[in-house]
Amino acid sequence: MYRDLTKGNISCSLLLFALPMIAGNLLQQCYNLADTLIVGRILGKDALAAVGSAYTLMTFLCSIFLGLCMGAGAVISIYHGKKDDTAKKFAICHAFLLIFAVTLILNILVYIGIDLILAFLRVPSAILQPMKEYLLIIFAGIIATSLYNFFSCLLRALGNSVVPLVFLAVSTVLNISLDLLFIAVFPWGIKGAAVATVLAQYVSAIGILLYTIFRCKNLLPSKKELHYDKQILKEILNLSSLTCIQQSVMNFGILMVQGLVNSFGPAIMAAFAAAVKIDTIAYLPAQDFGNAYSTFIAQNYGAKQYDRIKKGTRQAFAISISFCICISIVVFFFAKNLMHIFVLPEETEVIAAGISYLRIEGAFYCGIGCLFLLYGYYRAVCMAEMSVILTVISLGIRVLLAYLLAALMHSEIGIWMSIPIGWVLADITGLVYMKKSMAG
């Protein structure tokens, strides 16, 4: 169940390690996918717009502690590659306390500032109250999401990508079942979707926590080993904080784009909500493959197998680009069919806007696929500051162009066009720097 990525066939190891991660995150997307599908079909476009806008906000909030988890996971992977079990246990303990403290503070702040958040997002008055009701409930799941992500990142860092998938599968089935019960059977409306998601999140969080405590005791420090280690905490803080910044900047940029989308009204908001779900699921395998590649790089970096890193990098880019080309073709030609999954046929304005988004952005999935690999590489070799730079390039250009082109074109098409331009420019920068760093 635990995979050693420092030996064996590289492509097979990467794919076998990545597949459970891909399946797990596809299931995780089902949390919001179920909300989107059921809410859009039963409660209508205004409720769909509210849930979709809330999804973008929650993605940003979760990116803060997800970035911390990913950074900590890279440190743990490096110690695992070095076969230093004592340092690995110290890293696990320090990372958990740090991430849980940040999560608690974040949870308190979002409840205090919910009205300011809604104002920043420029939420139309027609959906302001239902979106606030939804958020007040969904915020209760932040701690559960943080716990699940920490322990799943921990297990994946050590080569176990199967167990996180099992707990997600159970909670996803529960989420969908409760969605149908609370929305289609009970008249709970948008609140029912939020309650279903939060309950499912706690099932996966508590499940993986108990599994780690009772089945992975060798990973947990004993009472004698529970003491402060300044050097290890410094390593975790350096890598985790930069990864957190990278993730947060990326999703904050998306949040700013969401605010611009909201200014075009509920129809465009609903189109964006549905299209983003399709978009996220389409390139999610490339994202998870990038995370698997990052674990591969970190373990081999710890083991000082630099030739294996170079060989694995070439193979990883070939696999990711091949997949992205295939998925781009599917999304481009079946954009209308995909939109019909979430939106009723009579909502012609919503469907048309969603199709244009998917065809413009979907044609360039190779750009985001390469970017995920670059993020993973720089995080794994303790150069997370480069991931931040690439994110600033990608998102900075996206946000600036989105506002500029939308104003010049007086259309949401300008927003859609800005996204792949940002990807491509960040890719060029990251690949040039990678080539120089590997040559050195």
UniProtKB/TrEMBL annotation:
A cellular component term, taken from the record's GO annotations: plasma membrane
An annotated GO BP: monoatomic ion transport
Domain of life, per lineage: Bacteria
Subcellular compartments: Cell membrane
Keyword Glycoprotein: no
UniProt entry keywords in alphabetical sequence: Antiport, Cell membrane, Ion transport, Membrane, Transmembrane, Transmembrane helix, Transport
Membrane protein topology class: Multi-pass membrane protein
A molecular-function term among this protein's GO annotations: xenobiotic transmembrane transporter activity
Keyword Cell membrane: yes
InterPro entries: MATE_fam, MATE_MdtK, MdtK-like
Annotated Pfam families: MatE
Annotated TM spans: 12-34, 54-79, 91-114, 134-155, 162-186, 192-214, 316-335, 355-376, 388-409, 415-434
Function: Multidrug efflux pump.
Family (UniProt): Belongs to the multi antimicrobial extrusion (MATE) (TC 2.A.66.1) family.
The name this protein goes by in its record: Probable multidrug resistance protein NorM
